[in-house]
Design a protein that fits this description.
about 350 residues; mainly alpha; 2 strands; about 65% helix
């Protein structure tokens, strides 16, 4: 009996932690009525639009159905956004009103599409369908952590530590949001695990789907490409780099195709609205000398919304581990990971519209 519990102890603890977390959060979310917050109107109405006519264009019948499917608060929030756009009170903040095209949400329908299965199940159970988003968030997050624990090639003790860090992460504050933050973060976890397993195409596909909603995460895509060629060019079987590239042309084409979901957002936006990124309509931060660098530094160091004041222990550990890997193991890919993080921060430092301090976290 004792051997049963000792064998794979940390792996068992990881699974038990995920189960306890899932059960606790499930009942916590069910006891917390979904309320309108942030850009929930965009995502919730897009789910209905996709159900009604498999399009993200928002039509009057979608607003009518929202009153039947969602709680009164959420339906009123959506209708209020719709009315403000129609009456010209605000053509930017709520939904996008584009002449000759129609009314559209600010984001691609990837997350909204993902929420439809849970929404349909809740409809069959005659339960408020507003819960579909928080329950989908919980399902995706638990699946991502479970996938990491099962697949990543590290020790069971290390898996357990990462599992606990993710369960205790400030990210869980977003679980009840009818918004895409958890969806994006879960896909980043999948992509990181695939990359660690050198499954570059699946890593690229995961991050590309996340990139349909937030293009800044695509900085991690450059890391995938770098790691892909790093592995190929480290091969000792072929003498010349060009020969390596030529021999692996099929893999390179598949890798490129895996990134297509991300580009599909830009193609759709440009063909419909004449811009590649809808958020660019809200404006950019000034491109003065060192302006972007100052904002990037602020997002890392600022005492109000910077990473360091909130996660200084984690960032210190990451810095020490990175130094060890570079100096002792000569693993230069660590540098590309650090660059991917910094360039991601720089990417969202370009735009003026960024929500900080919401839900009590940076």
């Amino acid at each position: 009996m004792k051997k049963f519990f000792i064998k794979d102890l940390y792996l068992k603890l990881s699974y038990i932690s995920i189960i306890i977390f899932a059960i606790c959060m499930f009942f916590t979310l069910l006891s917390t009525p979904p309320r309108p917050i942030g850009e929930s109107d965009d995502y919730m109405i897009t789910t209905i639009s996709l159900q009604n006519h498999f399009s993200i264009q928002i039509l009057p019948e979608d607003i009518i159905r929202a009153k039947n499917d969602y709680s009164k608060d959420n339906a009123n929030y959506i209708e209020d956004s719709w009315n403000k756009v129609l009456t010209g009170q605000d053509k930017i903040r709520y939904f996008g009103l584009f002449p000759d095209v129609g009314i559209y949400p600010w984001y691609m329908g990837t997350y909204s599409l993902c929420c439809i299965p849970v929404k349909v199940i809740l409809a069959k159970m005659n339960v408020d369908q507003s819960y579909a988003f928080c329950l989908t968030n919980l399902l995706l997050y638990c699946l991502a952590i479970l996938f990491l624990v099962k697949k990543i090639d590290i020790s069971d003790a290390e898996k357990f530590v990462i599992c606990i860090l993710l369960i205790c992460s400030p990210t869980i504050n977003y679980l009840y949001w009818p918004s895409a933050e958890i969806f994006i973060f879960s896909l980043v976890i999948f992509s990181v695990v695939f990359l660690s397993l050198k499954k570059f195409i699946l890593a690229a596909l995961s991050i590309a789907i996340a990139g349909t909603l937030n293009p800044t995460v695509m900085m991690f895509g450059f890391l995938i490409i770098f790691d892909f060629y790093y592995v190929l060019l480290s091969s000792k079987n072929v003498s010349f780099y060009w020969e390596v590239i030529k021999v692996n042309l099929q893999k390179e084409i598949l890798l490129f195709l895996a990134f297509l979901p991300f580009f599909s957002t830009y193609i759709f936006n440009y063909s419909h609205f004449g811009v590649f990124n809808l958020q660019s309509l809200l404006g950019f931060s000034p491109f003065e000398p060192f302006g972007i660098l100052e904002r990037t530094f602020a997002y890392i160091m600022d005492l109000n919304y910077g990473f360091l004041p909130y996660f200084w222990i984690v960032m210190l550990l990451i810095s020490l581990i990175s130094l060890y890997l570079v100096i002792c193991r000569h693993d230069l890919r660590v540098i590309t990971c650090i660059c991917a993080f910094i360039f991601t921060v720089m990417a969202y430092a370009i735009t003026t519209h960024i929500n900080c301090g919401m839900t009590g976290i940076a």
